[in-house]
Protein backbone atom coordinates (compact mmCIF):
# COMPACT_ATOMS: atom_id res chain seq x y z
CA UNK A 1 0.00 0.00 0.00
CA UNK A 2 1.34 3.42 -0.90
CA UNK A 3 1.07 5.20 2.45
CA UNK A 4 2.24 8.56 1.12
CA UNK A 5 -0.83 8.75 -1.13
CA UNK A 6 -3.11 7.40 1.59
CA UNK A 7 -2.04 9.89 4.20
CA UNK A 8 -2.30 12.79 1.76
CA UNK A 9 -5.74 11.69 0.56
CA UNK A 10 -6.94 11.04 4.12
CA UNK A 11 -5.62 14.40 5.26
CA UNK A 12 -7.21 16.10 2.27
CA UNK A 13 -10.59 14.49 3.06
CA UNK A 14 -10.51 15.78 6.63
CA UNK A 15 -9.27 19.22 5.62
CA UNK A 16 -11.92 19.60 2.90
CA UNK A 17 -14.59 18.44 5.36
CA UNK A 18 -13.46 21.05 7.83
CA UNK A 19 -13.48 23.80 5.23
CA UNK A 20 -16.97 22.82 4.07
CA UNK A 21 -18.30 22.93 7.63
CA UNK A 22 -16.71 26.29 8.35
CA UNK A 23 -18.47 27.66 5.25
CA UNK A 24 -21.86 26.38 6.43
CA UNK A 25 -22.77 29.51 8.48
CA UNK A 26 -22.37 31.59 5.30
CA UNK A 27 -25.23 29.75 3.54
CA UNK A 28 -28.75 31.13 4.08
CA UNK A 29 -30.70 28.87 1.70
CA UNK A 30 -31.80 25.49 3.13
CA UNK A 31 -31.02 23.15 0.21
CA UNK A 32 -27.42 24.28 -0.36
CA UNK A 33 -26.87 24.26 3.42
CA UNK A 34 -28.09 20.65 3.63
CA UNK A 35 -25.85 19.62 0.73
CA UNK A 36 -22.85 21.32 2.36
CA UNK A 37 -23.64 19.67 5.69
CA UNK A 38 -23.94 16.22 4.09
CA UNK A 39 -20.70 16.66 2.17
CA UNK A 40 -18.87 18.09 5.16
CA UNK A 41 -19.70 15.23 7.48
CA UNK A 42 -19.86 12.58 4.76
CA UNK A 43 -16.37 13.18 3.41
CA UNK A 44 -14.90 13.20 6.92
CA UNK A 45 -15.78 9.56 7.59
CA UNK A 46 -13.86 8.40 4.52
CA UNK A 47 -10.67 8.84 6.53
CA UNK A 48 -11.55 5.58 8.31
CA UNK A 49 -10.62 3.71 5.13
CA UNK A 50 -7.08 5.01 5.63
CA UNK A 51 -6.86 5.19 9.42
CA UNK A 52 -7.89 1.61 10.25
CA UNK A 53 -5.30 -0.04 7.99
CA UNK A 54 -2.65 2.38 9.25
CA UNK A 55 -3.42 1.48 12.87
CA UNK A 56 -3.45 -2.22 11.98
CA UNK A 57 -0.03 -1.93 10.41
CA UNK A 58 1.45 -0.11 13.39
CA UNK A 59 0.76 -2.69 16.08
CA UNK A 60 1.96 -6.26 16.51
CA UNK A 61 -0.46 -8.93 15.25
CA UNK A 62 -1.18 -10.23 18.76
CA UNK A 63 -2.46 -6.81 19.85
CA UNK A 64 -4.11 -5.75 16.60
CA UNK A 65 -7.71 -6.67 17.46
CA UNK A 66 -7.56 -4.96 20.85
CA UNK A 67 -5.99 -1.78 19.51
CA UNK A 68 -8.49 -1.58 16.63
CA UNK A 69 -11.29 -2.00 19.18
CA UNK A 70 -9.93 0.83 21.30
CA UNK A 71 -9.43 2.96 18.17
CA UNK A 72 -13.04 2.34 17.09
CA UNK A 73 -14.27 3.11 20.59
CA UNK A 74 -12.38 6.39 20.66
CA UNK A 75 -13.69 7.25 17.19
CA UNK A 76 -17.32 7.06 18.27
CA UNK A 77 -16.83 9.26 21.33
CA UNK A 78 -17.45 12.24 19.05
CA UNK A 79 -21.05 11.05 18.85
CA UNK A 80 -21.25 11.37 22.63
CA UNK A 81 -19.23 14.56 23.09
CA UNK A 82 -20.55 16.56 20.12
CA UNK A 83 -24.13 17.03 21.36
CA UNK A 84 -22.88 18.00 24.82
CA UNK A 85 -20.41 20.55 23.44
CA UNK A 86 -22.93 21.91 20.93
CA UNK A 87 -25.57 22.23 23.66
CA UNK A 88 -23.09 24.04 25.88
CA UNK A 89 -22.22 26.44 23.04
CA UNK A 90 -25.92 27.04 22.29
CA UNK A 91 -26.69 27.74 25.95
CA UNK A 92 -23.99 30.39 26.10
CA UNK A 93 -24.72 32.08 22.76
CA UNK A 94 -26.82 35.22 22.41
CA UNK A 95 -28.97 33.59 19.72
CA UNK A 96 -29.41 30.04 18.44
CA UNK A 97 -27.89 31.11 15.10
CA UNK A 98 -24.79 32.40 16.86
CA UNK A 99 -24.51 29.14 18.82
CA UNK A 100 -24.77 27.00 15.70
CA UNK A 101 -22.31 29.24 13.88
CA UNK A 102 -19.80 28.72 16.69
CA UNK A 103 -20.45 24.97 16.72
CA UNK A 104 -19.88 24.58 12.97
CA UNK A 105 -16.81 26.82 13.03
CA UNK A 106 -15.36 24.79 15.92
CA UNK A 107 -16.16 21.46 14.28
CA UNK A 108 -14.79 22.58 10.93
CA UNK A 109 -11.61 23.96 12.47
CA UNK A 110 -10.98 20.76 14.43
CA UNK A 111 -11.50 18.66 11.27
CA UNK A 112 -9.24 20.88 9.15
CA UNK A 113 -6.45 20.81 11.74
CA UNK A 114 -6.85 17.04 12.13
CA UNK A 115 -6.56 16.71 8.34
CA UNK A 116 -3.29 18.61 8.24
CA UNK A 117 -1.94 16.57 11.16
CA UNK A 118 -3.05 13.33 9.51
CA UNK A 119 -1.26 14.25 6.29
CA UNK A 120 1.92 15.27 8.12
CA UNK A 121 2.18 12.67 10.87
CA UNK A 122 0.70 9.39 9.64
CA UNK A 123 3.58 7.26 8.43
CA UNK A 124 2.97 3.54 9.07
CA UNK A 125 6.04 2.41 7.15
CA UNK A 126 8.25 4.46 9.45
CA UNK A 127 6.36 3.70 12.67
CA UNK A 128 5.55 0.05 12.04
CA UNK A 129 6.11 -2.39 14.89
CA UNK A 130 9.53 -3.97 14.40
CA UNK A 131 10.93 -6.17 17.19
CA UNK A 132 14.41 -5.99 15.65
CA UNK A 133 14.72 -2.23 16.18
CA UNK A 134 16.91 -1.20 19.12
CA UNK A 135 14.20 1.14 20.50
CA UNK A 136 11.57 -1.63 20.53
CA UNK A 137 9.67 -1.98 23.78
CA UNK A 138 8.39 -5.54 24.39
CA UNK A 139 4.60 -5.89 24.49
Automatic annotation (TrEMBL):
GO terms for molecular function: transmembrane transporter activity. Its main location: membrane. It comes from the Bacteria. Pfam families: MFS_1 (PF07690). The keyword Transit peptide does not apply. Keywords: Membrane, Transmembrane, Transmembrane helix. SUPFAM superfamilies: MFS general substrate transporter. It comes from Nonomuraea fuscirosea. The chain crosses the membrane at residues 33-55, 67-90, 102-123. It is found in: Cell membrane. This is MFS transporter. InterPro entries: MFS, MFS_dom, MFS_trans_sf, Sugar_transport-like. One of its GO terms (cellular component) is plasma membrane.
Amino acid sequence: MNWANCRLLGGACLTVSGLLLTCLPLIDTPLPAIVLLMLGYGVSVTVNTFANPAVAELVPPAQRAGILGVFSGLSVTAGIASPVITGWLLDRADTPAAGYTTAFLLSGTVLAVAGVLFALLVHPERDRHDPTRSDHVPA
